[in-house]
Amino acid sequence: MGASTAFHLAEAGVNVTLLERDSLASGSTSKAAGGVRANFSDELNIALGLRSLEAFENFKVRPGQDIDLHQVGYLFILTKPEDVVLFEDSVKLQNSLGVQSRMLTPQEAQELSPLLNIDGVLAAAYSPRDGHCTPESVVLGYATGARKHGASIHTGIEVTGIVHDGSTISAVETSAGRIETSTVINCAGAWSPQIGAMVGLEIPVVPYRREILITEPIPDLPNNFPMTIDFSTSFYFHREGPGLLTGFSDQSVEAGFSLNRDDGFAEKLGELAMVRAPRVLDAGIRSGWAGLYEVTPDHNALL
Ligand SMILES: Cc1cc2nc3c(=O)[nH]c(=O)nc-3n(C[C@H](O)[C@H](O)[C@H](O)COP(=O)(O)OP(=O)(O)OC[C@H]3O[C@@H](n4cnc5c(N)ncnc54)[C@H](O)[C@@H]3O)c2cc1C
Fold first, then answer.
1. Which atom of ligand 1 is nearest to the CA of 22?
2. ipTM for the whole complex
């Protein structure tokens, strides 16, 4: 969010300074699975998703960076009748707003995503324009573009306070001194409540640890198949180089900033994979990591 905001403001002629206490993309962004989509269930998120897809499709030109965008689609696998109804309604809404999504039979879903086991699958929802890209490249592209438009970007500098009189901001205190400004944009993701607290704002964002595994190469893996998500369990995978990037949202994880990886994560993921994509179990684990999801009360973005 920080690099994107800096780019768009600098391009519009605003004098911008971006402060990052670590290195660019070091927060949640470099930990993401890279999924990009307009396959949502409400008008606002569909519109935001469409706008993002347009930006990602044009990224080589503006700001001018290859982000390894694979528009292989999103494929939601549905195993509960109520989820089928939910997605049928969402697909209708998406179609009315210009998203070319459609419902598929289990067999059609398996043709698109051959690792799938379709036992117990009732239907699937497919949105071909969605896909995945490399999050760090998006940050790099926006940061480089922002600099070209005159933005100052400082890494290794922490915001430690905001000077204000209750109604007007006059400066930001940092680990490298004070910067005079009347405007602050809080793009601190999971850490945004700390920045909000500097001006007495309570921002309802809670961090939850989520993990990802990268598998060893899988022989005969098709070149292109969708980001595939087993909706009822949240188990998902997409192609990453010669192997897979895979994960799920472990609902037993408690809120907190810990990035310690769970020793049992691979086993829990394996149980879900055994049901939905057993071939994943044949592949060894090459690497993995944990990152923080910044969760709001209604799971929508906060502006
Ligand atoms: C495992 C996992 C998978 C995910 N998969 C997807 C996906 O497929 N698709 C998707 O859309 N989203 C995904 N997400 C969510 C996505 O990663 C986040 O929503 C997104 O990266 C948030 O971006 P951000 O810029 O708001 O926050 P961040 O990328 O966390 O950036 C905030 C930055 O603020 C800096 N900061 C904090 N405090 C200060 C301070 N006091 N001073 C200076 N700097 C400070 C931090 O160092 C950090 O770099 C995933 C998340 C995880 C953890």
1. 47
2. 0.99
